[in-house]
Each structure stands twice: as structure tokens, then as C-alpha cells.
Amino acid sequence: MSLDLPKEIEPAIELVGIDKKFGAVHANKNINLTVAKGSIHGIIGENGAGKSTLMSILYGFYHADQGEIRISGKPIAIRDSQAAIAAGIGMVHQHFMLVENFTVLENVMLGAEGGQLLRKGVASARKELKRLEDDYGLEVDPDAVVEELPVGSQQRVEILKALYRGAEILILDEPTGVLTPAEADHLFKVLRVLRDQGKTIILITHKLREIMAITDTVSVMRRGEMVATRKTSETTVEELAELMVGRRVLLHVEKGDANPGRVLLSVRNLSVKDARGVTMVDNVSFDVRAGEIVGVAGVAGNGQSELLEAIAGIRKPASGEILIDGKPVAGIDPAGLRDLGLAHIPEDRHHMGLVLKFEEYENSILGYHRDRRYGRGAMLDLEAMRKDAEEKIAKYDIRPPNPRLKTANFSGGNQQKIVVAREIERDPNVLIIGQPTRGVDIGAIEFIHKRIIDMRDAGKAVLLVSVELDEIRSLSDRILVMFAGKVVGEKTGDAGEQTLGLMMAGIAA
Amino acid sequence: MNTASVQLPAWINYGVIPLLNLALAFFFSGLVVWAIGESPVEALRLLLIGALGRGEGIGFTLFYATSFIFTGLSVAVAIHAGLFNIGSEGQAYLGGLGAALVALSFDRYVPWYVTMPFAVIGAALFGAACAAIPAWLQAKRGSHIVITTIMFNFITSSLMNYLLVRVLIVPGKMAPETRTFLEGGQLPKLDWLISMFGGRLGAAPLNFSFLIALVMCFLVWVLIWRTKLGYEMRTLGISPTAASYAGIPYAKIVMIAMLISGGLAGMMALNPVMGASARLQIEFVGGAGFVGIAVSLMGRNHPVGIILAALLFGILYQGGAELSFDMPSITRDMIVVIQGLVILFAGALEYMLRPAIVRLYQQISGK
């Protein structure tokens, strides 16, 4: 389905008939793709649509079973990532591949030190880095230690690393997942400069708005196939969403008015410190009532994670009080809080919400494993566990519907459904949620959002933390904005994006 | 190319790969034997006949395997909770004191089957006690369990040497060992088991603790895969953050897992102390605690795997001894080299062949 390009535009990359299977999974089916030189080409698709596999093939992590890759018209075999780099392909991964306690310069040089002794290499690298920064407007202090840089700057280091190695084609995998709206804007500016100077950019994302904002061309993948390629100016968000999912999707959540009752969760003057003793949550107070969703907006790293963990009993507060249904719960561990009717959908399903090496049914009892219904006394009742898991699988349409499958083998959306099913099916009074739809495909997002609203309508108190402003705005009845550990303001659910964005940046209250 | 995430069927994971590793180990051992001018085939034949050829050989093989099962289980239980217990050696040594104290106090008054349960408990308690301090330091102070358990091996060794030389020694004797236990303090030999298969046990020290080891395999399997405690241990072992999310208490699980691990190591002492020599001798553990690490790794921390790996090491110990007897140019040290190669290929290089096998499997199965 290659795009008909005007004759004068030469292709930077052509993929011809790329095919890849993993066991029974057909990850890429006969993919044809042409990316024009000096353009920003978006690749969009749900999780598991095969975007990452395709890019991994292009970057030499996997080998295609069939098909050909052409760079500037010439067929090329990409055996490993070194070959990809040599062919001028650079990759900026979703999770940065940086040595955190190295400086920017050291990170950029890594793997290209130039000789046994560092000194000469350092000097020339510094010069080259300066030139790249100037050319592309990528200002970063070369001597800053990476772990002390904000996320947006770390990403710039990744881009510099690729450019330093002579990348002509840059692949960015979900680059805005960790950025503030302002940082994302900055990134887009950089990408436009890069394009205007002749670099080719492939942007992988599941965010339709980004595609519309920055790309020239967009290709849509669904279930391993490249289903369409469009000029961005000639398509709409609705069309792309439909192409991605294969059916019409509701992009906006339908919900009625909230009907708040008594206060179920109350936070009073709460302060939380991290392991280094830095105050992450600073004297925060708020209430969540029965039958309402309170959203906590904020750029990642402004204390929302610590706030959630403190309420969930995972992190000890430095001071202040947390009350569930009027009862102080300080010092009660997560297991005890569950007994009091608190359920927690954690931000990080890979490290907290799930044990990825466990089979699905084992994860569907995590945190509730001491329950009598999963076995009397010290023993586990595997029969009961599996039956329970099967019921949840059916009710939440978790796929594949196999409780014996390793959790790591489910897609992101289905993994999240396992967590959501486990926590919501307990019928808690208070539900606290972190990033409910991070890395989750559109179909599952719709489903999870509906469940959250059902909880509200059933008279539960819901606290929702998310860095996706759209999500906060479409679900919340009230919005709290956190900045530098403090709640800097409260708005109603229909607050404008601009207002919230400024508050999140700590500019206006 | 990344093959780590590719799933292989169980028969390849647990059958083909270990067997190939073993074949490689034997191949390189064969090279060593060939290099010193002996026939590798003849050496292998002698080794296998020595270990499995006669009832007595089998008895010795199973006797060694018994010790390795206990220490292998000890290492495996700790690993499931994410703890690398290097201290099974010392825990087994101290466990011997527990077993011996019970045997010395009971053997005059009661038959062996009354002494045995108390001896099992005594050995386990002393082994657990030896693991308790490293466990507490890990749980409460974050001192790394690998370091502390290694150091406790030295501490127990010195303590036991002191006790045997100064306290437990029979007055007027030169050997640092306790008196010989009477029959009430000995575990009976398993002549009947070998004769069931038409062999004769002879002088081999295979004893009742072999059956205790098999029972412990079953109990460990139940613990890890069928109890809530085992679920909590596995959760903590794989993902400490998920454990804290689930409200699984870190310190408590670390303590319990290490006490069970130490207890299992302690029970190993039943085999040599009450089963074979009927007295507590100096350095009776003889490295079985360290072999347990290899056994657990090779057996994928699963009781069935541990039994198989323990048998393999039993064969190497017994067959190796016979081999060096029959082929004088193959010394005791050569046997250690061969055992080392098995540990290297089956344990440390466990995943060396995996990428190649994954690719082969993908080609054959047509992906």
C-alpha cells in the first residue's frame, strides 16, 4: 500500500513485503511502506498492532522472515543495531537508554569513544556536540549529569546521541509519553527543524492528536497489517481512529452529572518524603466524596505517584492524616486497607500491579490472596482461583481468554484489564487509580473509562491520577492540579486545557 | 537478535536443553581425559558402572544424592523468595550439632524411630538458627544475604571445630568427633530398597534419610506452589515492588524463607551423621552445601529437577571415586575438574545454547 509519491521526492526508506511471525503470532503481514526523505512520517496503531516489531526489524533487533529493506533505493541487510546505525538509522526508545550517572557528553560518546584513550575523543566529541546543538536547537549542557536533567532534556540527549552517530533517519517510539505539554511542543519544534534540514523522521505513537499536529504523512497499522497511508492534511482524527480499531469509536466519554454523597476519602495536611528525604508531597489536603471522580492533574514527577502510594499504604507519610470513611488509617498496611474497602489500580502495572512471570489466574488474586475464598487456612485453592479468573476474563473480555497464560504474554491493554478487573470486582468503596490507560489501546481505553464511570455511578469515591490531561478532563468531576508536591488549584471538570496546562507548569493558580 | 522472550515448549526447556548441556560437559571432560592419555569412552564406562553397576554403587550414589537433595531444596526455597543463600554449607554443619545432641541424649533410652522425629527437628532448628542472623540482617538492615551467609560459613566452621576439639570429643581420644551413637541414635540402612531391585547394599551407607529427603521434596513443592505463604514468597522473589503493593510483608517473608531454607540445609546432617558414620565428625558436610547451589540451579529450583540433578551429582561423586580407583592416572582432582565442567555447563552456562535452539525450533516448527 505504498504511497504514490511525486517523482521528485526520493524515498529514504522502503519496506517491501516485510513479514514476521513469532510462533503462532503473525506480527507483521506483508508490510509495504515508503517513507519520503525529509518528511515526518507517523505510524499509528493500537498496542500489538505490530508497530514496535516493524521498527525493531528496521533497527536490527529482529530479522524479518521475508521482505526487503531499502535505504535510499538500495537494498540492505540489517543484521544488528550496529548495521542500522551504519546505514544512518537512529532510534529514540520509549524508555531511554542512557547511563544515568554519566554526563551528557559521556552518554553521547558512549560506544563511539574513538580510540583507547579518552582525551582526544572527548575534545572532538565536545566540538561535534556543540555543532549539533547549534544546528538543531537542541540545547543541553554537555557537562550536566543525565539523572539530574528533566525528562525532556534527557530525550534531547537521546536524539543527540543518534545524530552524533550520523543518523539521517530518526525513529521515535512514543516520544511524548513522559513529556509535559510544553516539553512535547518543544520536541515537535526540534523535529520540524530536523525535517527542514533534510532528516527523515518516523514517529510511532498511539496519540492521534500528535499525528495530526506534526506529521506530513501517516500510516495506520492494525493486527499486523498496514491498512492505510494518508497525507495528514487529508485525513481526520475520526477516520484514523476508525482505521486503527476497525470500527467506529467513541472518542469522548459519555457520563451523566455527578451525585456526590458523604466524604469517603479524606486527606489532611499530608506530607510524604522519598527515600532521599526530599519532600515529594507537601501539606496536601482534599476530600473525595461518594459518587464523584476527583482527578489529579500534573506533570509526571510532581508528587502524584507518592500521593497515591501514601494513600495505598505502600509509602509512609511524613506527617498528616488519611481517613477512609472517617477512620484514620495511618500505619495500616496495604492488606489492611483492602479490608477497609480501598482498591488501588497502580500507575505501573509491570512492577506493581502484576507479577509478569505469573500465570494470569495467579495475578487475578494479587493482594487478595489471603482471602478465604481462594483457599482455606494456609492452602491455595487453585480450582477456585481459576474459576474466579475465568469469570473476570469473560466479564472484562480479556484476550486471549486463557487463565494459564503467562501474564507477560498479554498485550498492555489486556494486562491493564487484568488489574482493573481484580480491583473493581472487589466492589471497593474507595478506588484510587494511577495512569489507568498508559500504554493501553483505544478499544481498551474506552472500556476502562466506562468501568471507572460505572464505579462513580454506583456511589464509590474515585481518585484518579493521570498525566493525560484529556483523560483527566473527560472523566473527572473535580480536578486538582499538583505542582512541586503541592495542590496548586482546584477546578471543575470542564476546566479548559489552557488553564490547567498553565497550572501544571506552576505558572498560574 | 533477541530470543530471550521466545517461549519454548516445556520438553525443550526442561528436557533437551539440560541434556545438551550435560552432553557438552561430558564432551569437554572427555577432551581432558583424552589429553592425559586415557580413553574417554573407557573412563565414561567405568564412571557409570562405578555409580550404577552394582547395588553397592547405587547405594553410594543415592547416599550422596540424599545430601544434595537437602541442600538443593535449601537453596531453592531461598531463591523462590529472591534470596541467594550461600550458607547451606554452614547451616548443614550446625544442623549436625542439633542432630547429634538429640542422638546422644536419646540413643540409650528409645528406638531409632522415636529418636528420628526429634533429630529431624533438632537438625532443622540448628540449621535455621544459623540462617536466622543473616536473615534478620537482610530483613531489617539490608545487609546483603550473600555476604552474610558466606561469612556465617566461616563462623559455624570455627564454632564446630572448637566444640568438637574441646567439648564434644570423647575424653582420651585423638579424633575430634563425638562418641558413636547407639542403635537408638542411628538411622537404619535401606537394604530392602536395593534388594527390591535385586541388588545388595553391601557397605554403602544409604539410609532412612533418603526417604526423609523425598518427603521434603513433596513438602517443598506443596509449600511453594500450593500455599499462600509460597505465593507470597514467589511474589516477593520475582517482584519486590508488586509484593509491597500487595501488602506482603518483606521482613516477615525474608525471615520465614531463610528459616525454612536453613532448616532444610540442617536436615542434610541426618544423612552423614546419623545415617552413615553414627557420630558427629569434623568437616562432615564436605562441600555438599555448595553442590546444593549447582543442584538447585540445574534443577530449575523445582523439587523434581532437584532430585534429578542430585542424582547426577551423586553419580559423579560415586562414579568419580571408582574411576580414580580404576584409572590411577585420573586422580581425585581430575574428578573435581569434571564436576566443575558439569557445574559450568549445566549451571553457569545454562542459557548459552538457548538462542541457537530457539532459532532451530522456530525453523523446524515453521514459526
How is the secondary structure organized here?
The complex is a heterodimer of chains A (509) and B (367).
Chain A: E1 11-22, E2 25-36, E3 40-45, H1 51-58, E4 66-71, E5 74-76, H2 81-86, E6 89-92, H3 104-109, H4 118-136, H5 151-164, E7 169-173, H6 181-196, E8 200-205, H7 208-214, E9 217-222, E10 225-231, H8 237-245, E11 263-273, E12 279-289, E13 292-297, H9 304-311, E14 319-324, E15 327-328, H10 334-339, E16 342-345, H11 349-353, H12 360-363, H13 382-396, H14 412-424, E17 430-434, H15 442-457, E18 461-465, H16 469-475, E19 478-483, E20 486-492, H17 497-504
Parallel strand pairs in A: 3-8, 3-9, 6-7, 7-8, 13-18, 13-19, 16-17, 17-18
Antiparallel strand pairs in A: 1-2, 1-4, 4-5, 9-10, 11-12, 11-14, 14-15, 19-20
Chain B: H1 10-35, H2 40-52, H3 55-80, H4 88-106, H5 112-141, H6 145-167, H7 191-196, H8 209-226, H9 228-238, H10 240-245, H11 250-267, H12 270-277, H13 288-298, H14 303-326, H15 332-348, H16 354-364
What does this structure look like?
- The complex is a heterodimer of chains A (509) and B (367).
- By secondary structure, chain A is an alpha/beta fold.
- Chain A has three domains: 11-245, 3-Layer(aba) Sandwich (Rossmann fold); 250-341 and 429-509, P-loop containing nucleotide triphosphate hydrolases (Rossmann fold), CATH 3.40.50; 354-427, no CATH class.
- Chain A has helices spanning 51-58, 81-86, 104-109, 118-136, 151-164, 181-196, 208-214, 237-245, 304-311, 334-339, 349-353, 360-363, 382-396, 412-424, 442-457, 469-475, 497-504, and strands at residues 11-22, 25-36, 40-45, 66-71, 74-76, 89-92, 169-173, 200-205, 217-222, 225-231, 263-273, 279-289, 292-297, 319-324, 327-328, 342-345, 430-434, 461-465, 478-483, 486-492.
- In chain A, strands 6-7-8-3-9-10 form a six-stranded mixed beta sheet, sandwiched between helices.
- In chain A, strand 19 and strand 20 (486-492) form a beta hairpin.
- Chain B has a domain at 68-313.
